[in-house]
Amino acid sequence: MENTQPNYNLAKETALSVLRDNFVQSPPVKILQIASNYGLVVKDADFGQDFDRRVSGFIDPKNKIIYLNSQDPDNRKAFTIAYHLGHWLMHKNALLENPNKYAILHKAPLGSDSADLLEKKANFFAAELLVPKALLEDYIEEDINTITKIFGVSAEVIGYRIQNEYGRTTALRNGR
């Protein structure tokens, strides 16, 4: 039987290892520095009008460069870096062998039903890295806007993490 679920445990273990190896103890996760620690260079790029709305970034795996859509907000850029770092750490061979498939991050809702297991795993890794459960727990009573500012990510990423960790869609325990 073909596996239809990504190995989320590997993604979680890899994210926790990156956090530990980079001594991350409080939000926001300094993703630009972390990418640099793994030999990746990050650059802003103008993708042109046709791609601005559809592409958040791409990685050139041979030259170890992540290109970010210069029109995206910082919280989207952080996710794009983390996503590409996830591919780099977990799927380097797939990235090098098939860059047209895995090197580009298309803009789509985080929880969208992609059939590609590596894409799901890279998204999960990015969210886990930027919003680790151990740090999220310290702020779970805050409202969603406060949490997004503390972690430097979008409300979509916070919602995704809360859904994955707590099985609910709200950040507040008291339901405010």
Report on this model:
- The chain has one domain (8-131): Arc Repressor Mutant, subunit A.
- The chain is 52% helix and 11% strand.
- The protein has helices at residues 8-21, 31-37, 48-52, 74-90, 92-97, 99-102, 117-130, 133-136, 144-151, 155-166; strands at 41-45, 55-60, 65-69, 104-106.
- The chain has a four-stranded mixed beta sheet with strand order 1-3-2-4.
- β2 (55-60) and β3 form a beta hairpin.
- α1 (8-21) runs parallel beside α7 (117-130) and α4 (74-90) crosses α7.
Q: Please state roughly what percent of the residues sit in beta strands, choosing from under 5%, 5-15%, 15-25%, 25-35%, 35-45% or over 45%.
A: 5-15%
- Helical residue percent? 40-55%
Give the termini separation: 44 Å
CATH topology: Arc Repressor Mutant, subunit A
Order of helices and strands: HHEHEEHHHEHHHH
- Roughly what is the average pLDDT, rounded to an integer? 86
Give start-end ranges of low-pLDDT stretches: 172-176
The Rg value, from CA coordinates, equals 16 Å
Rough outline: globular
Q: What is the strand arrangement across the widest sheet? A: 1-3-2-4
Tell me how many strands there are.
4
Kindly give the count of domains: 1
Specify the CATH architecture: Orthogonal Bundle
> Which CATH class?
Mainly Alpha
Largest sheet: 4 strands, mixed
Structural class: alpha+beta
